[in-house]
Amino acid sequence: xxxxxxxxxxxxxxxxxxxxxxxxxxxxxxxxxxxxxxxxxxxxxxxxxxxxxxxxxxxxxxxxxxxxxxxxxxxxxxxxxxxxxxxxxxxxxxxxxxxxxxxxxxxxxxxxxxxxxxxxxxxxxxxxxxxxxxxxxxxxxxxxxxxxxxxxxxxxxxxxxxxxxxxxxxxxxxxxxxxxxxxxxxxxxxxxxxxxxxxxxxxxxxxxxxxxxxxxxxxxxxxxxxxxxxxxxxxxxxxxxxxxxxxxxxxxxxxxxxxxxxxxxxxxxxxxxxxxxxxxxxxxxxxxxxxxxxxxxxxxxxxxxxxxxxxxxxxxxxxxxxxxxxxxxxxxxxxxxxxxxxxxxxxxxxxxxxxxxxxxxxxxxxxxxxxxxxxxxxxxxxxxxxxxxxxxxxxxxxxxxxxxxxxxxxxxxxxxxxxxxxxxxxxxxxxxxxxxxxxxxxxxxxxxxxxxxxxxxxxxxxxxxxxxxxxxxxxxxxxxxxxxxxxxxxxxxxxxxxxxxxxxxxxxxxxxxxxxxxxxxxxxxxxxxxxxxxxxxxxxxxxxxxxxxxxxxxxxxxxxxxxxxxxxxxxxxxxxxxxxxxxxxxxxxxxxxxxxxxxxxxxxxxxxxxxxxxxxxxxxxxxxx
Length: 625
Prior knowledge:
Elements: H1 5-18, H2 20-27, E1 34-38, E2 44-50, E3 53-56, H3 63-71, E4 80-84, H4 90-98, E5 104-109, H5 112-118, H6 124-127, E6 133-137, H7 141-151, E7 160-164, H8 166-171, H9 173-199, H10 203-217, E8 219-220, E9 233-236, H11 242-245, E10 257-261, H12 265-269, E11 277-280, E12 301-305, H13 310-316, E13 320-323, H14 328-335, H15 349-360, E14 365-368, H16 385-393, H17 397-409, E15 414-418, E16 424-428, H18 429-443, E17 450-452, H19 467-475, H20 484-487, H21 498-526, H22 534-550, H23 555-564, H24 567-582, H25 588-624
């Protein structure tokens, strides 16, 4: 059989010029386990050799018709399609040819040999130029998770269709089972993350602007970059397992850095254990309750991102270090003051605390009380602020335990799993997602050692040791760290030109006032469209589109509005996508519906703009005092 050498070379040249890493992988790959041969219909078919036996990946008679048959059971109008196993790519090509224009396609192929073989049959040079096509080649689950994150578009997400090349999936079942689990987790994570953003509507940016004068009085996290290089660090969470070994933390005595998440602070202080840093990331007021009443009890420092509750900044700003997590409003502050230092955070405060430990240069990083599970049918360790709130109404321990068990068993998304000791325990879908995210973050840092000394819970992906053994091995014989040198770090305001920052904020106010006038004008126009001709409808829609785009003439301005509230632009894009799918012809009904969608968008965005103006004005007044 004659291989299509020209197609192979064309594909290889494209990879060399556009995807050099994949090019090097494929160009240097020796074919050992797979063979291409001619099918009865004259096309190519593929076989895979396992333990000396050849297994067919495609039909030996008509592989193209075989893939077309499989397509009959695939919903090609689904907005997202994931293809597990591609073989020589017949199924991939047919799906891309017949799917809805808005559908995004992801191919998951662990066997690089198949990718190389498919370069004889598929026009990869054209395929990889598409903006609706994503791929993961090789058996790296971190790459898969990251690609899924990019692949999922929240604005069009309604249905995800999974398609299998059954012959390949059967042969490589362990990989594909794990890949499906990763897909499920990542989709849920993306949806949870976006739901969180929608739920935080207004909260984070309002907090940032209310916090501005206190942020400037706090110390920047960048001053701590690699400050404790190669010093052991212990990250303390408030999981139920913390009760088992919390007292051992007293043995550390400044020979390692203690980072507590906010929920674990009161349990630590109740045992006279002072963490060096307490990490806070949640913007809601309820997180202030973990610190309430501790102004005179905290001896060391707090590390937070800028969007936390304003009350925490008011009560503790002299002890605070502030970090950026890349939000547009924070970039405005940094442009006019100096770099805060960026520390990644998502979902749970534990990821913020761990990334802060990496930022400090800590090694090893040791987790304590990090269960990600309801160990012994409990939510948290004892003496947290939640327990305090319950004890106000009843100090009866048995009643408290019954309340915990009932709250856990009533969770509809509870999951039974094995803990670090191989025993049965329970967790929730949300806690499991947080754990998976943390593990991915850990895997991004191969140069740092991570140890789980929780002695409970489900963090099984890193080495597990007892806390006593960890202290003996890594901490006992170390010199004490100098905490006092941290107190000498100067606050951010030393480098701030208040006049310059006020002028900058005023320039933003001016833009948003002008934009608000345009929004109100277009709202009036869109309310009076009933008697317009088709051409007038089209002109009105063009004007509405121009007003919308005007928000992004300076990208930062649009980013700030979306940070304030994602809902208006999210619903606009989602409804526009729905219109495109439901209307084959751009007739008058389409034009009417289009103007309705724009009207809803501008009516929703007008109060957002008003709120931005008000909070920018308030921030200027506060920093001038």
